[in-house]
Amino acid sequence: MFVDDKISLIDPKIFTDNYGKIREDYIKIRNYDFLIDYSPTYHLTANKSDDFLGFIPTLTPDSPWKISPLIFNRSIIRRTPKQCRDCFTTRLLLSQPVLPVLAVFSILEPGVELEPHSDGDQRIDENYKDSSVIKYHFSIDIPSDGECGLVVNNEKRILNNADLNMFDEKLSEHYAYNKSDNRRGVLIVSYIRDEVLTY
Q1: What's the CA gap between 50 and 72, in Å, rounded?
Q2: DSSP state of 154
C-alpha cells in the first residue's frame, strides 16, 4: 500500500527540494553508461565481505530494467565509479539520520511493463529480515510523450517529475510501466520500515 509521507521520519523535502541536483546526478551517471541489469530475484543478503556488484550480472543490451547502484547496506559501493560514490545524491542520503539499505537510479526502457513483484530489500540487513522496507520512488526523468505509472496493490499512480511515492513493500506487490517512446528514470531508496515509520 502507498504510505503517507507525514508518518515517515525521512523528510520528503530531502528529495523534493533537491530535485534539480538529483536529476543532474542521474543524467551524468546515465550518460556515463554505468548501468547494470536488475531483477527482484537477486540474492541481496549482505555480510561484511559482500559488495553489491559481487553477485549481479553486467548489462545485457536488451535488458528492460536497468539500474545504477549508489548505496548498499547503508554504505557506498566500493566498486562503483567515482561518479556514483561521490555524487551529490549519494552524499545527501548518507548524511541523513536514517540510512537506506539500498539506493539506485532506475531506468525503465520504452514500452516496458514489469511483472508484479516484491524486491525484498529487507534481506540486505539480516537484523531485519522479517521486517519490511518502505520504498521511496522519486520521479526524476519522466517522459512527456506517454504514460508512466507505478502500481501498488492495484492502486495506480501516474508519474510526474519531482513527485515522491512511498509504499510498504511487505503489504503488497508492485510494478511499474513505461508507455512512452523514451526512457523513464527514477531514484529508488529503500529504508527498513521499523526505522522510518512513526507507528
Answers
A1: 9
A2: T
DSSP state at residue 114 = P
**CA distance linking residue 104 with residue 71, whole number of Å:** 7
Please enumerate in sequence order all residues whose Cβ is within 8 A of that of 43, keeping only pairs 6 or more positions apart, or say none.
Answer: 55
Q: Would you say residue 47 has pLDDT above 80?
A: no
Fold classified for 5-196: Jelly Rolls (2.60.120)
Residue 93 grid coordinates: 542520503
Q: Compute the average pLDDT of residues 115-133.
A: 87
- Which helix (H) or strand (E) element contains residue 15? helix 13-16
Beta-strand (E) ranges in 63-132? 65-72, 75-76, 102-108
- Gyration radius (Cα) of the chain, Å: 15
pTM, two decimals, is 0.93
CA distance 198 to 124: 22
The residues, ordered by sequence, that sit 6+ positions from 165 with a Cβ below 8 Å of its Cβ are 2, 136, 137, 139, 150, 152, 157, 159
Domain boundaries, the chain: 5-196
Residue 191 confidence (pLDDT): 96
Which 3 state secondary structure label does DSSP give 90? Answer: helix
Measured distance CA(67)–CA(72) in Å, rounded: 13
DSSP character at residue 181: S
